[in-house]
Design goal:
Largest sheet: none
Radius of gyration: 61 Å
Number of helices: 6
Oligomer: single chain
Distance between the termini: 209 Å
Low-confidence stretches: 232-241
Structural class: mainly alpha
Length: 241
């Protein structure tokens, strides 16, 4: 194969490998973004409270790390592209094969290039970590304050409930006392009225029971009233001249 064709084939293969690498990187990035979005939707469905806020803080921290990595990768790619432009300016007649060779060299030097931005990336990660710790501490403080407020409200509710209970019991006791006093007064008035009526008519109210005559008493009365035969005879003897 002629040299020019070999160079052209090498360039085509190099470009193809570059496109495949970019495609893989984009797939990884899209998957990470999708995972973060799914986690956000899951958190949105949680009930408001400590756990929801804690998971949101963790997710925000992971998003910061993800964005930090994206910025770092973009910065490395920008440095590589800038070095590539500088090389082209310095080598205007360079062939495509030499250009790809230098590009491969930049790729192998990517670790050294990243060391240039390493301090910036480390500073960003440290700020992200401090932001997360501060958010967690604020959540912890607010949660304790909320519990203290709850305890205070509960104590106040219990105090108000005790006062209302005492008031109800006192009102009920006064009502029962007044009712008993009213019943006692009514019975006293009734007894006094009965005594006064008895003083005015001593026999009033007394019932005389009629004695029913017994059969023996009726026979005795009949014998007493019936005329005796001897008595009639004596009367006839006396009346003779």
């Amino acid at each position: 194969m002629p040299k020019s064709r070999r160079a052209q084939a090498h360039c085509t293969q190099h470009d193809l490998e570059k496109d495949i690498e970019k495609y893989k990187d984009s797939i990884i990035e899209k998957k990470k973004e999708s995972d973060l979005e799914i986690r956000q939707n899951t958190i949105n469905l949680l009930e408001d409270g400590y756990e929801k806020e804690r998971q949101q803080i963790e997710l925000n921290y992971e998003r910061l790390l993800f964005e930090n990595k994206k910025r770092s990768d973009e910065m490395v790619e920008a440095i590589k592209e800038n070095k590539m432009r500088e090389w082209k300016i310095a080598n205007p007649k360079a062939t495509k094969e030499r250009e790809n060779a230098y590009r491969d060299k930049l790729k192998s030097d990517e670790g050294r290039i990243r060391s240039v931005t390493k301090s910036d990336a480390r500073a960003i990660r440290e700020r992200s970590r401090k932001t997360k710790l501060k958010a967690m501490q604020d959540l912890y403080t607010r949660s304790l304050e909320g519990l203290q407020d709850y305890d205070t409200r509960r104590a106040k509710i219990e105090e108000e409930g005790a006062k209302k209970r005492e008031e109800i019991e006192r009102t009920h006791a006064d009502y029962i006392k007044a009712l008993n006093e009213e019943v006692t007064k009514g019975e006293s008035r009734k007894a006094s009225s009965t005594r006064q009526r008895r003083r005015r008519s001593p026999h009033r109210g007394r019932t005389t029971r009629k004695r029913m005559p017994s059969p023996n008493s009726n026979r005795s009365a009949t014998r007493r009233n019936a005329p005796s035969p001897n008595r009639n005879k004596s009367r006839r003897k006396t009346s003779r001249p």
